[in-house]
Amino acid sequence: MGFLPIVPMLIAAYVALRYSPARAFLQVYVPVLLLLPMYYRWVIPLLPDPTFEQATILPIAAVFLVRSGGRWKFSFADLLILCFAGCIGTSEYLNTGYNEAQNLMFDMVASVVFPYMLAKGLIEPQGLSVAFAKKIVLMFSIVSVLSIYEFRMGLTPWILMRRFYPGQGLEWVTSFRYGFARIGGPYGHAILAGLVLAVGFRVQRWLEWSAQWESHFHGLKWLRVSKARLITIALVGGIIMTMVRGPWLGGAIGACLTAVGRTRHRRRALMAIAGAIIIIGIPAASSFYSYASVGRAHAKTASQETAAYRVELMDKYLTTALKRPAWGYGRNTWPKNPTAPSIDNYYLLLCLMHGMVAVGLLVTIMVTMTVRLVRSEMRSPVSYPLGSSLGFTLAGIFVVYAVTIATVYMGLQTIPLFAIITGWSEGYLLKRYSMQLAPTVAQPVFRFRRVVL
């Protein structure tokens, strides 16, 4: 039954050909990406082994390229995404040879390049921002509700799929904290679930502030709680059940930037954030470093031990990473320290695997997109209702990613979701830029009225 990914692949092909790539992307690809695990693969001899997500996106991308590829507008973000994917493939080829490199390059194309391409070419150009946002928010809400079982019983409902994929996904197990199971849903681990649900929460708040939801769920009008509020509660519950501090911290800091779009005095708000970073952030970072630098052996609490472990990672691995700074050691061949086998810092892990070039490209994507989004919104009139500014929401999501992956791993669904957010943001910026350049009809300075006597 390992060939199950062919089912959504064929459905996506039919919908893309019969209707449109946009419909296939929204109605088939997004649910597959967010509801089905990416750690199960369809093993095909002599070919790369696709996940459900990768198999589904291939026909959609093919139809899109045939029908719309000639109208593609190249931009700087395209170059960054292509260089990032190419850098990782090149690193793997130099470190492990062609066989491993072809598999990883397929992953990068199917899970980074294609999601970015479709998001950029379909969401804003087709006017699907609200529809896409609602779709991913509803998928995350479903995951949050289903994961109550995992939180209570310690077993993920998605474990039922293992009978079709013997030997696969065994490394992804439910972890516990404070005596409770940390939900991972179809995302493998609680840290990954926490990150994607934090993204979903930010998108949901934009929908709620923009009054894009109908008042109540169909058939539940008797409830006094609105539809938007119920969805928000479901997402908050899911985030809490992950019990992961990294995404919580990233979500809180990202919310600060998003909040700028909720005020009429945006420049003052940005200045206040900058001041808070200087006055509060720097001393807080210094205090945290002192708190975490005691070493695991001298930690007094489990939380301090976790923080100390992340500081020790830099001491144990930074020198190793700098020995091969350009291309790293490869995805599965980087040297592991037996005293610190898990690297809870994606920047450090990426440097070990694929070098400083890959890290630099990833950081450049996040920084440039955030700056461009904020600059675009600052140059535009205040959006009403307050909070309906999509640019600040997307910028806040990049901050969520940038902060979170400094404390946790980035993998599985978090990677294509990041590519989608980048493509969505680029399409949004290009659309706004084209609107600003649209010619306007000049009005005469004086208007004369002819009077016939």
TrEMBL record:
UniProt-listed InterPro entries: O-antigen_ligase-rel_domated (IPR007016)
Keyword Membrane carried by entry: yes
Keywords tagged on the record: Membrane, Transmembrane, Transmembrane helix
Domain (O-antigen ligase-related) ranges: 231-358
Principal location listed in the UniProt entry: membrane
Membrane topology: Multi-pass membrane protein
Membrane-spanning parts: 79-98, 135-160, 180-201, 270-292, 346-371, 383-403
Gene Ontology cellular component annotations, sorted alphabetically: membrane
Cellular localisation: Membrane
Protein name stated in the entry: Membrane protein, putative
Naturally occurring in which organism (per UniProt): Acidisarcina polymorpha
